[in-house]
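sanity check this fold:
=====
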Amino acid sequence: MNLEWRVIDFGEKDGVSNTALDLALLEEAAIGRSKPIIAFTEWKPTVSIGNNQSYFFDVDEEACKKNGVEIVRRKSGGQAVYLDQGYFVVSLIAKPEMFPRDLTKLREWFCNNTINMLKSLGVNVEFYPPDNIVYKNGNKLMTLGNSGQVITNKAVVIHGSLRYSLDLD
């Protein structure tokens, strides 16, 4: 199995662009035109809602408009996630054979690999089942949320978001 991954930092973009990037990278992996990818994105203020969520029940559209927060629907499942300049999202995109087939094991695999990567950068993180990564900074806890996966027979994308700054004025 080829363990060589491309690492790409896309920097900060709006929600539509970041959501489109995930889909484009998924398509590239599906047709075999790309090595497996670890992608990092930062977001302008956005609410990203899961594929199966109700826009009308789960999003306060007026509050988003009032505060300049974009609303996007991602292809993966999971609950709504608020993302802004204090977050980054990590996405792993590759052929299905690169990942565990069982969804619980896939989530744990994602968390453990992300933990290993973050620890190699000197970040103190721990795994909390079923699919959370917790960063401890003194008395402050920040979590990496497993915001979902898109699984096809030709490619997989799994992603999570990590708050690295807590300036919520």
